Structure formats: structure tokens, C-alpha cells
Amino acid sequence: MQGSKVAITGVAETPMVRSSPHSLLKLETDACFAAIEDAGLQVRDIDGIVCNRNTHSADEIGFALGLERRPFTAVTDTVGGTAPAGQALVLAQLAIEAGLARHVLVPYAFQATRPGGPYGFHSREPLKADLEMPVGYFGQASYFAMMANRYAHEHGLTEEELAAVSITYRRWAMLNPAAQKREPLDLDAYRQSPMISTPLRVADCCLMTDAGAAYIVSAVDRARDMPHPVVTVAGVGMDTNRWPQSVVFTQKPDILDYPARQSAADAYAMAGVAAKDLDLAQIYDGFSISALLQTEMLGLCGTGEGGRFYLDGHGLPGGRLPINTSGGHLAGGYLPGITLLVEGVRQLRGARGEGQVKDARLCAVTGLGGNSHSTTILARD
Amino acid sequence: MGIPIHPPRFESDLLKPFYDGLAAGELRLTFSTTTGEPVWYPPEIVPGDPAAKLEWRKVSPVGTVYSFTTITRSLLPGDHKAEVPFTVVLFCSDDAPHARVPGLFVGEGPAACGMRVRLSPVQAGDHIVAGFAPVE
Question: What is the rounded CA–CA span in Å between residue A18 and residue B82?
């Protein structure tokens, strides 16, 4: 697979809200209709769907859209942000290059308020139910808190450094009218944020969001005749480790080691660029600590230097490498991975208004999900 | 410090030897009969070795804290507000340093990565869970 053969030609999202009265299907299809319109297409132009195993099948989405034919269908099997921000792009490009589809729709929706809550899938793991839940070790905040304390042990991490991640993304959210959390966050406000699992506070955790989003992938040649400036998928890399969900947070030899270094290396190689060439990045921030780790793994700073990177303001508006310019998942809204990709496209179109990064031409977008990781390099054509 | 009350679900007898061990004051983990190495948590199939069986062995109750966190807002299903705070550690026995056992931190003062601790099972309601106390 080669870089810059496909482009993201339509993007959309529904409002990021804490609790929506709409169903998951309604959120997902509303986003689909809006993305199709954004691409200047009609529903009948969509001939491929890459759906997410955690939402609706292509049958359900196709029926809701009124789609008569659907020659290409695929389902992502990774979790979290990897599926919509990386794996779906790989599948869409394969379909387009094989001539199976011209315009591939990638929908996604998420309801943090659904029955069972966002941690329900963990409680269905028998080993977690028998070994972890009886000692109260349950939920992502606790899993990632373990990582934060281990990171502090190995590299050192002050409260100010960890807080700087959340403060950076909040500063960007304040420039995004669509962000879910826009009130100012300084160190004092951060310290007022309730502790959940030391050292992680509410402000270190992704938001609870109900929303839908979607995007359209088209061949670059077709994209040049479509409404928006062309934003290509210059590179995409995906990697996994061998540890499934039941043990990835406890038994992986190094719990700080996401498969991000390889996914980034593959994406950079495919795009023919290096970390130093990036103008901005959207980094999957389920938690402040996981974003800090990926910042290092993408080569945006050295290992053990993530805290200092954020504390020195490099990711802030006006910084040398703006990061999570929509507010990310900590402040913009938590619709895993896909909203980071949508933000990257809007930045490269030059359509982000007050939050626009000047002369943005190259943007990395990452996705993390359990034992998988993706890095995507978006480029202005 | 509080104690979370959430009994094991025990959909099968797989973990029964672990809890029997705690009741006897022992830490028991699963090992591959082929390699003799710890395989933990016990999987349905030993990775890459379908012929291997798992056997439970008693391991040293003394070891090291790999990492820890003090939970002040429990995310367990149900209402657990009265049970916080408590500290969870990932424990590595000296006999199986790469097999991590989640347990409650027992004792005063903060936990720390690298801290030397010893098995100290905790009564949590009507069941026993893994606990680890600092080595004097």
C-alpha cells in the first residue's frame, strides 16, 4: 500500500454532549448524512462502508441511509481509537485501490451513557471478574493510573508536568466552539479536579460523551474535483502486541510500551516524512498519561521528556508543535479516534477558525485501543 | 483505608486453587507443564503450546510492587462510595517476577514501585482477597 493514493473528502460530527436523547443509530446516521453532504456527494455515490464492530452493521447503516447497493463492506476489529483513526483507512484504501469502491463511508458513534457504562466490557472478562474486581482494580482510570505511577518511577513525573497535558488540550478547547469542556483550566483548577485513582484526576481522563462522527475516503484523483482542499492519507501504520484485553493492563512485560513506535515508524516511512516534519498532531488522549507516552513514542520528544515537553508549552497554541487542537478527548469530546481525524482534516483544509494552526500541511493522528495502535499522517495536497 | 467488597464471580472453577491458596496463607500461580515457566493469568490455552497443561504451584509470598494506585472513586458496578480509599498493587513474587498479581496494599503509609512486600490476605466481607504488606 502506498501513501497519498486516497484522500478524506468529507467529515462531520454531531454535537459532543454528555447525554444525548438520540439513539446510537440516530447519532451515527446523522453524522453520515452530514459527511456525505460535506463531500459534495449524494447517498447513492457511497459504494463502500467500513463499519465498527461496536456500533451498527453496514446493513443497518445502509438501510438507515436509504442506500440501495453496497458493493464493498468491511468491519474493523480493533478497539478504541485504532479502528476509526487507522484500521478503517487501511481497509478503505484497499477497497479503492482494488476498484471495489469509489467513495467509502466510515461511520462511528459512541454513547458513554449506554447501559453498563463505558467499562461494561471489562466486567464481562472472567479473569478480571475473578482476579481484579475483587480487589477493586477496575476501569480504565485505574489501569492508566498504574502506568502513570510506573512512569514516574522510571522517568520522574511531577504533578505540574502531568497537569500540563490537560492544561494544553484545554487551551485548545477554549478555541473550539464545538468542544464539550471549554472553561479555563490552570494548575489551581487542575488541583481542584477530583482525584479518581492516583495520580489521575477527573481532568486527566477523557470526557463522557454521546455523539456520532463519520468521514468519506475517496481516490485522490476524484478528490481534486470535490469541494474541499485535498487532504491525503500520506501514511498509515498499525501495530499490535500479543496481549489481549484480559491481561494487557497487567501482564504485558512493560505496561508503558504501547505498539506506537512501530505504527509511527511505518506511517512515517509510508509518507516519506519524519517527526520533525510535522506541523501539528492529534494524539489519542484517553488519559493524560497515555497521550504523554505517545508524544514520546511518535518521536515528538525524547523518552522520559514528555512531561517537560508539555510543561514547556510546546503543544500549546503558538507552540512549536500544536497538539490536540480541538481539545482532544480530554476536553473536546470522547468519540474515540475519529474526532481526532476529523480535526486533522479540518486543520489541513484551513477551516478551523480561531483554532487554526498557521500554514498547517502535515498532521499526525494516533489511535490507541487495548493492544493496538495506529498512526496516520494526513497531508495537504 | 477501606476494603472493596466485590466477590469473585467464579463462572468456572479455574481460579479456585488461587483462592484456596489465599485461605491457606499461600500464593499459588499457574505454570506450564511443558516449559515449567509461569503462565499468568491462567489462559484457556497456553500460548503457542496447545499440548501444554497448567499446574498450580506455590510461590514465594515475598516479592516486589511493580506499580500501584490509590483509588478514591471506585468504578466497580454498584455503590462503593463507603469503601474508598484503598490502594491496589501489582505484585511480583520473587519466584515469578514477570507474573503480576493484583492485590490490596495492607498497612500504613504510601505504596511505592519497587517496595518489598509479603502476602497478607485480606478478609473482604465473606470472602478473602489477595493483600500485600510491606516487609519489615
Answer: 26
Quick check: ipTM above 0.95?
yes
Q: Compute the distance between CA of residue B69 and CA of residue A35 in angstroms, rounded to an integer.
A: 42
**Subunit contact A136:B10, Cβ cutoff 8 A:** no
Q: What is the mean pLDDT of residues A121-139?
A: 91
| Residues in chain B closer than 8 A to A121 (CB atoms) | none
Taking the CA of residue B76 and the nearest CA in chain A, the distance in Å comes to 6
Q: Which helix (H) or strand (E) holds A342?
A: helix A338-349
Instruction: Return d(Cα A172, Cα A336) in angstroms, integer.
Output: 18
Closest Cα in chain A, distance from residue B69 (Å): 5
Confidence at A121, pLDDT banded by 50, 70, 90: confident
**Structural domain boundaries in chain A:** 6-114+207-380
Per CB-CB distance under 8 Å, the chain A contacts of B14 are 126, 130
By CA distance, what is B65's nearest residue in A?
A150
What tens digit of pLDDT does each residue of A93-114 get? Answer: 999 999 999 999 999 999 987 7
Whether A197 and B124 lie within 8 Å, measured CB to CB: no
Domain A6-114+207-380: which CATH number of 3.20.20.70, 3.40.47.10, 2.60.40.10, 1.10.260.40: 3.40.47.10
Mean pLDDT for back-to-back runs of 10 residues, chain B (136 residues): 93 94 98 96 93 96 98 94 97 98 93 98 96 94
Q: Give yes or no for a contact between A49 and A70, defined as CB atoms under 8 angstroms apart.
A: yes
- pLDDT tier at A115 (50, 70, 90 boundaries)? low
Residue B133 sits at the chain A interface (C-beta within 8 Å)? no
d(CA A139, CA B14): 23
Q: Which pLDDT tens digit goes with each residue over A202-249?
A: 999 999 999 999 999 999 999 999 999 999 999 999 999 999 989 999
Q: Which domain holds residue B107?
A: 16-134
Phi, psi of B92 (to 5 degrees): -120, 115
- Residue B126: what residue type? D
**B101 vs chain A: nearest CA distance in angstroms?**
8
Residues of A in contact with B130 (CB under 8 A): 135
Residue B122 placed within a domain: yes
The Cα A5–Cα A19 span in angstroms is 38
CA distance A207 to chain B (A): 15
Instruction: Tell me, yes or no, if B11 comes closer than 8 A to chain A by beta carbon.
Output: yes
